[in-house]
Amino acid sequence: MSTPIKIAIGALGGFLVLIVLACLYVLTIHGSNLHNEEQLVYVPKGTGVSKIATLLEEKNVIDNVTHFKLSVRLFHPGATLKAGEYKIPENSSLKDVIDLLSNGETFQRYVTIPEGLTSYQVEKRLYTDLDIKDSLSADSFVGPIEEGSLLPDTYAYSYDESAADVLKRMQEAQTKVLDEAWENRAKDLPIKTKEEALILASIIEKETAVKSETRRVAGVFVNRLKRGMLLQTDPTVIYAITQGVIEDKGQGPLGRRLLHKDLEIDSKYNTYKYAGLPPGPICNPGAEAIRAALNPEEHDYVYFVADGSGGHAFSKTLNEHNNNVSKWRKIRNK
Predict the structure, then answer these.
(1) Could you give the C-alpha distances from 281 to 37, 71, 201, 250, 260, in angstroms and in order?
(2) Would you say the C-alpha torsion 267, 273, 279, 285 has a positive or negative sign?
């Protein structure tokens, strides 16, 4: 065979290869795959390209394992497909899928912990709401969760994290908030330690859900502590009875109203019998309650009671307070 013919054949072969590559490239960039709805795909650590391709095919994200592997090697040289859980949008092209995995744009899940839950309630909520790879059990939580140590907030987490990972972030966040609030605390407070601040914040958290009056409620308790008055706060008695083990059946923490005889319970948490702060937090307070405990509103109020609107009526004397209590009882008994 003459040299010109060999050259022509070689050129034609090269041209055909270019056409094949061009077609493959077009399919990679513009071609959509089988799935017409978004898919969640979990890629374990240490998974190679071939296994990833198989996982994607099983989820109907791609329709050809070989095509996927060639696209990765030819058009994404040096790219590393990262482990994690991915949400693949519907009708994604091969390029979209490869970019998603090579950029490590993993799917984030979220869990929300509201203010004022006890650690027992937080643990139960994590059992219910965390959707993670390893099923939750009692062994998912290392030891009892210290009351007050978790910052209520919304937390992002990934499918391959553990419950302990999420709890650690919650504890670190609470420590940071408490440290910052302590550094910026008001002068002349009857609060001597960060632990005492956390205890007071937990009481404030349970006493009001109205953010605009959080610092005012804090001021009432600070005034009572300064005067040596009993705090006389119902949530501490409830904690003395339940020890934080609340089942959330929609009937309040006790499943009934707090009764007058409950105020006689002999517990250091009973602030109707024992002066000062209880021995520990009664819930996990949020950042606002912690800041309020260390920067309370300055006023002369030493009493408050529900006003029927979701907030509270504040008073400086016992006579004023008794009048407000009478008004509240009339509203409650309607």
Answers:
(1) 47, 58, 8, 23, 23
(2) positive
Q: Assign 148 to helix, strand or coil.
A: coil
CA angle (117 as vertex; 292, 272 as ends), nearest 5: 70
Residues 6+ apart with CB under 8 A from 122: 113, 145, 150, 170, 284
Please name each of the domains of the chain with its CATH number.
Answer: 21-103 (3.30.1490.480), 119-299 (no CATH), 300-334 (3.30.160.60)
- Give residue 229's Cα distance to chain centre: 37
pLDDT digits (tens, 9 = 90+) for 109-156: 999 999 999 999 999 888 888 888 776 555 555 568 999 999 999 999
Q: Which amino acid is at 246?
A: I
Which amino acid, one-letter code, is at 2?
Answer: S
Q: What is the pTM of this model?
A: 0.82
**What is the spatial distance between Cα 50 and Cα 155, in angstroms, rounded to a whole number?**
34
Residue (of 40, 41, 42) closest to 160 by Cα position: 42
